[in-house]
Specification:
The complex is a heterodimer of chains A (about 260) and B (about 350).
Chain A lengths: L2 H20 L2 H22 L8 H5 L4 H18 L4 H9 L1 H7 L5 H28 L7 H30 L2 H17 L12 H7 L3 H14 L5 H30 L2
Helix pairs in contact in A: 1-7, 2-4, 2-7, 4-7, 4-8, 4-9, 4-11, 7-8, 8-9, 8-11, 8-12, 11-12
Chain B lengths: L1 H17 L9 E12 L3 E12 L3 E5 L6 H8 L7 E6 L2 E2 L4 H7 E4 L11 H11 L4 H14 L15 H13 L5 E5 L7 H16 L3 E6 L2 H7 L2 E6 L2 E6 L1 H8 L2 E7 L7 H9 L5 E7 L2 E6 L2 H14 L4 E7 L3 H9 L25
Parallel strand pairs in B: 3-8, 3-9, 6-7, 7-8
Antiparallel strand pairs in B: 1-2, 1-4, 4-5, 9-10, 11-13, 11-14, 12-13
Helix pairs in contact in B: 4-5, 4-6, 9-12
Classes of the chains: A mainly alpha (about 260), B alpha/beta (about 350).
Chain lengths: ~260, ~350
């Protein structure tokens, strides 16, 4: 089988998922309405956080909205990635996975195509949030390169986290479990990190946990890119390192479970 | 007579010209030997079956739910691994080159495997891509299939809006997209109304006349009878009988009277009936089947009066009596001792929290 065939398979499978996603009302809701709600609600409710002593010093901005933009990206990508696995469960239940398994394709294109479509979805959602943020007056302090890096972090983080839900989906083979586990983990991970609150302002015990929460380092990377002029390479680099490490673990586990699910 | 003779002569001549290999006529395209599939923990879904499907025939697997039909088809189509035994399709061993088998077969599962969120046309287009059809052929192939299954009008509607019959037809078209050498159909008409069923039968016959080998499973006697050139009756993972529908019916060689009895205090009415009927001349065999007894006789209508009188003398109240010329139902009953139940069993779609689905992957 030629490399062109393989690319064609992966592309067709990714195309299928993208088409499906765009046709699904919940997707439009999550990617469009929810960020708006987050921006409006949180920035209205917590605008005064920016007045707390030490906020500006530790974040580099006196606007909670600007700081919060990173959190909206994380929240949306997290929620989106946590649903990635559900598609596999649906395919197992409907028998579509069998259709793919009996086709003369490389089995790996089934997983690759899915991950590729997850990545495309996450890029689209990130773009929507950024457009919204720009409309609200938030800028990217690190310019075009920063913007590219921001998309790269969102993409990498999203795919690494898609691996978690895909692993859960392939293990439980049950969409309710996949969604419940996702919901149960999303919010604690978000709030026990520096995504919504700068590190110095976190409670001592929360800060102690946040240090071990990978989301913290993704958040620090995003905040840095949005707020601080001049690229802080160590912070951004560390975000990518975390993505690489988490991604390696989740995608290895996913690949193992996937092989088991499609083995004949 | 003469005409018939000359046709058969020319037919055999053309066959020998067309196929230089001696084995080409009537040779096996599917060869299965001693196939065993055990699911965890200890369910022997298929328990040592052997059969052959000949090139160019429609071969049927007839049996009730849970007989092992789907498991067998899934092993041959490389969807699941067998526990032991041999399965070869067109000379390719499922163990050695499953990818090679996937290239030459088409498969439509019992559960329709189409994507509801895509249109019929998009489903077919995806299938073209998965089977690596040359790009320039795809549109033509898709229109051809849509026409063949009469889905042209609905082609650009989402498959989720289709009726059961349309979904089943689309699924069949999906399986046919790659021009398969062997078409595997797992209960192709289950859930269809009689009209749709007849249309599918006609279509399958047409495909077969063009030379496609078709392996189908069914729990409908009529379907097996009308469609299959040869069939196996399968039950509890075993092949109980094998042959053409005519030879299987002929193996009964008699009419069948089935009887069941009312509860009237007589202990073991089946045994009592057997004893009461033993004296009647002309009865070839009496078999206990579930719910009653089956009587096999050459000229059953002539014996009905004697049978009823004998049972009356034995104080047995008849609940139901049927007289039939042999059907595949009777064949099934004769070889399995059970009546074939054809009622639909709703597939279990939901499982309790976190429980693994039992469905073989």
């Amino acid at each position: 089988m030629s490399a062109g065939d393989f690319a064609g398979e992966v592309g067709s499978i990714a195309g299928r998922w993208i088409k499906k996603t765009l046709r699904r009302p919940p997707f439009l809701f999550f990617s469009l309405v929810q960020p708006v709600v987050w921006f409006v609600l949180f920035t209205a409710a917590f605008a005064s956080i920016a007045n707390i002593n030490g906020f500006k010093e530790s974040t580099g901005t006196s606007s909670y909205l600007v700081f919060f933009s990173g959190a909206v990206i994380i929240q949306t990508v997290l929620a989106s990635a946590m649903q990635s696995g559900v598609g596999f469960v649906t395919d197992m239940e409907s028998g579509f996975l069998d259709k793919l398994k009996v086709a003369p394709i490389r089995r790996s294109s089934i997983l690759l195509g899915k991950l590729l479509s997850d990545g495309a979805r996450i890029l689209l959602q990130t773009a929507v949030i950024l457009i919204l943020a720009f409309a609200l007056g938030v800028g990217i302090a690190t310019g075009l390169l920063g913007l590219v890096l921001l998309f790269a972090i969102a993409l990498g983080f999203g795919i690494a986290w898609s691996g978690i839900s895909t692993f859960i989906a392939l293990t439980t083979r049950n969409s309710e479990s996949t969604l419940m586990i996702s919901l149960l983990t999303t919010f604690p991970l978000l709030f026990l990190s520096t995504a919504v609150m700068p590190k110095p302002l976190l409670q001592d015990n929360v800060r102690a946990i946040a240090v071990y929460n990978p989301i913290t380092y993704i958040a620090d990377g995003l905040h840095g890119l949005i707020i601080t002029p001049g690229l802080d390479w160590p912070v951004v680099g560390f975000a990518f390192l975390i993505i690489g490490a988490v991604g390696f673990v989740t995608l290895s586990a996913t690949t193992t479970m996937f092989r088991r699910a499609v083995s004949t | 007579m003469t005409a018939q003779a000359s046709t058969s002569v020319s037919k055999s001549r053309s066959a020998s010209i067309a196929s230089p290999r001696l084995t080409a006529e009537g040779d096996a395209i599917i060869h299965v030997e001693n196939l065993v599939k055990v699911y965890d923990p200890d369910i022997r879904a298929v328990d040592g079956i052997s059969f052959e499907v000949r090139r160019g025939e429609i071969f049927g697997f007839l049996g009730p739910n849970g007989a092992g039909k789907t498991t067998t088809i899934k092993v041959i189509t490389t969807l699941i691994k067998k526990t032991s035994g041999t399965a070869i399709v067109d000379g390719i061993d499922v163990d050695k080159d499953p990818a090679g088998i996937r290239k030459i077969i088409g498969y439509a599962a019992q559960e329709v495997g189409i994507d509801d969120e895509l249109t019929g046309r998009e489903n077919l287009r995806l299938q073209c891509a998965l089977y690596h059809l040359p790009k320039e052929e795809r549109d033509g192939r898709i229109s051809e299939m849509l026409k063949a299954i009469d889905l042209e009008e609905a082609a650009d509607r989402r498959a989720g809006t289709y009726s059961g019959g349309m979904r089943k037809r689309l699924d069949l078209a999906m399986a046919l997209i790659p021009h398969p050498k062997v078409l595997f159909l797992d209960e192709p008409t289950t859930g269809l109304d009689p009209q749709n069923r007849a249309a599918v039968w006609d279509y399958l016959r047409g495909l077969n006349e063009q030379g496609m080998t078709i392996f189908l499973t069914t729990q409908y006697m009529e379907e097996a009878d009308r469609l299959a050139d040869r069939l196996c009756i399968i039950d509890h993972g075993h092949i109980m009988a094998e042959g053409t529908p005519a030879s299987l019916k002929g193996s009964i060689g008699a009419d069948v009277v089935t009887l069941s009895f009312k509860e009237n205090g007589t202990p073991n009415p089946n045994a009592a009936a057997k004893a009461a009927l033993a004296r009647i001349h002309g009865i070839r065999e009496i078999q206990e089947v579930d719910g009653g007894i089956a009587i096999y006789a050459q000229d059953a209508p002539a014996l009905i009066q004697q049978i009823v009188l004998a049972l009356n003398d034995a104080h047995l109240d008849i609940a139901e009596l049927t007289l039939t010329h042999p059907t595949l139902d009777d064949v099934f009953m004769k070889y399995t001792g059970r009546k074939m139940r054809t009622e639909e069993v709703t597939p279990q779609r939901r499982t309790p929290w976190g429980a693994r689905r039992r469905r073989p992957m």
